[in-house]
Each structure stands twice: as structure tokens, then as C-alpha cells.
Amino acid sequence: MLRPVQDIFKPGGYPDLLVGLGEPDDAAVWRLDDERALVATTDFFTPVVDDPYDYGAIAAANALSDVYAMGGSPFLALNVAALPPDLPTEISSEILRGGAEKARQAGVVLAGGHTIQDKEPKYGLIVLGFAHPQRLISKSGARPGDVLVLSKPIGFGTITTALKRDLVDMNDLAEVVEWMKRLNKTASELAVEFGVRGGTDVTGFSLLGHGVEMAQASSVGLRISFVKVPLARNARHYADEFIFPGGSADNRLYFSPWVNFEAGIDEASQLLLFDAQTSGGLLLSVPLDRLDAMMDRAAQLDQPLWVIGEVVEGVGIQVSA
Ligand code: CO
Ligand code: CO
To answer: Which residue from 208, 246, 271, 291 puts its CA 20 to 30 A from 228's CA?
Structure first.
């Protein structure tokens, strides 16, 4: 689909565009000078939860995440909204309030935007941030010997799909909503502070899908230990009932040629690893000699981080039980 765009804009013609026209990454990055680069991204989607405030906050956290995934600090955002004309004003304003309060929590000013009418609601942000051109985090920065660290659990897709089918326990939903609303700000700041160069955020393509992208962009292989991967509360329960969004099956179909599962990892577990996430955590490739200090600092800041595997020479992802 993007082929015509790639044909029109040749990477060689834009030396200050550090990230954007090559391998897909989380945001575009434009060098302003030796000390500063501008990070630009946009993301919006249809409602993942019923509560309009939470929907707005999750959409904003998710859009901001692509700047954090590049090691950037967001500072300015614009709303992008499509709302049904018959949607009560109270609901539309709650969506926008959820997004605005999340932006403020991130230290980002929301300075306008654009809204159109559409049958199905869509909401998200355009986000601009700054990063240091030499301290960018990208999908191509993972190196053999690094440790793979994840900053949120997975299984958000199975739980939000259970909500859509009226099968969800409200406590399970409440916990997953808190995770989706959580900013990746602290995880990103830690990564920059401890010299992480390889990373991405886990969203619609799943842990394994985004992992495959990172492995390919970095020309490395990944080893992930299934038991070390944190799961959202009771995600296992919904997975065992095979309640998954359509995207999870698509991810498995598309990415499984690059993934090898050790015997004993059942189908529900495999689908959890392919589960399409909304506003998931950062997947970071942490140099081994920085790991202990980074984990200590994360604990002081109440930032959860889970070691889930390692980066090796090779291709694709090997998942052990
Ligand atoms: Co991303
Ligand atoms: Co995105």
C-alpha cells in the first residue's frame, strides 16, 4: 500500500530525515542540529473500551508512546477526531478530556486539532517531541548479547475482546484499562539514561510481531522465554477460551514464518504472544552491563520492567517454554 509513497520520496534526498523512509519505525525523526532532532508521529483508532474518558486517555497514551519508543520527549500534540453527529456532546467532550488530561500528565500541551463527522468514532493525536540525534532508540539498535526487557504485560487484546463479547470480569477490565492508560514516559527516560539504543513499543502487531520487526531491522535473532513474559490479570483465562481480536490471528499468520516455538507451548499461549495490543509497553534491548543498574533505578521509580529474553546472532525469534 505504501509503495507509491516510497517511490516518490527517496531516502538519499533527505539527509536530515534520520528515521522515516527506510525500515518502518515508531516515528519519523528529523535532525535540527547536532544536539536536537524532532520526532513526529500520529496514531488514532476506534474505541477499545466503553468509557469515553478512558478511551480518550488510552488513545493519547498510545499516540505519545511512539515518541517515547524513539527515546524522545513529547512537548506538543494536536487532536485528530472523527465523531458521529448524533453522539451526545457529553460523550465527545469526555473523550477529548481524557486525551487532554493524559497529555498534560505527560507534560505535553494539546494545542488544537481537527474533528470531522463519521459514523464510527475515531480519536488519537499527532505528537511532536525532541530527541538527541545520538541517543535515539530504534528498531535497528538491538545487538547480540543485549537483554530483552518489557515494561507492560501482554494480553490486552484478549481482555478488550472479552469486553466486546460481554464476557469480561470487571476487575480484569479495570486492571487492563490502567495498563493501557499508563504512559511509557518513565520506561523511555530510563532507557535513554542507561544508553539503550534498540527498542520499540508493543502495539497492534503483538509482542512477537514487533519483536520480528526489531530482529529484522537489527539483523539479529531474539530468544524469548514464555514463562518470563508477564500476562495481564486473567489474560490466560480468556486466551484458553480463544477470545482474541481478529488482529491476533492475522499476526500469527503474517509473522509465524520468523517464529519458532519450542514443543509444549500450547496454541492459546502462542496466540497470547501474537495478541494485538493497544497502548502496550516498551520492548527494550538493554546492554547486559547496564541491566542491573537500570532495574534498580526502575524499582526506585515504581516502573515495572520484566526481563523476558535476550538478543542473539541469527534471525527470527525462538520462544522457549
Ligand atoms: Co509503535
Ligand atoms: Co503507531
So the answer is: 246
Q: Identify the nearest ligand to the CA of 43 by its number.
A: 2
**Fold that domain 147-320 belongs to in CATH:** Phosphoribosyl-aminoimidazole Synthetase; Chain A, domain 2 (3.90.650)
Determine the Cα–Cα distance for residues 168 and 48; give it in Å rounded to an integer. 13
The pair phi, psi for residue 305, each rounded to 5°, is -140, 135
Model-wide pTM > 0.85 = yes
Instruction: Give the HSE-up count for residue 229: Cα atoms under 13 Å, Cβ half-sphere.
Output: 28
Residue 38 CB neighbour total at 10 angstroms: 18
Q: How does pLDDT run across 160-217, given as a tens digit for each residue? A: 999 999 999 999 999 999 999 999 999 999 999 999 999 999 999 999 999 999 999 9
pLDDT for residue 2 is more than 80: no
Give the whole-angstrom CA distance, residue 226 versus residue 220. Answer: 19
* Ligand nearest, relative to CA of residue 202: 1
| Residues with Cβ within 8 Å of residue 84, at least 6 apart in sequence | 117, 118, 119, 120, 121
CA 4 to centroid of ligand 2, rounded, Å: 20
Which CATH number applies to 3-131? 3.30.1330.10
Residue 50 burial class via C-beta count within 10 angstroms: exposed 0-12, middle 13-18, buried 19 and up: exposed
Expressed in angstroms and rounded, the spacing between residue 130 Cα and the centre of ligand 2 is: 17
Domain with CATH 3.30.1330.10 in the chain: 3-131
Minimal CA–CA distance to 95: which of 81, 107, 111, 105?
Answer: 81
Q: Please, which residues have CB less than 5 A from ligand 2, an ion?
A: 43, 66
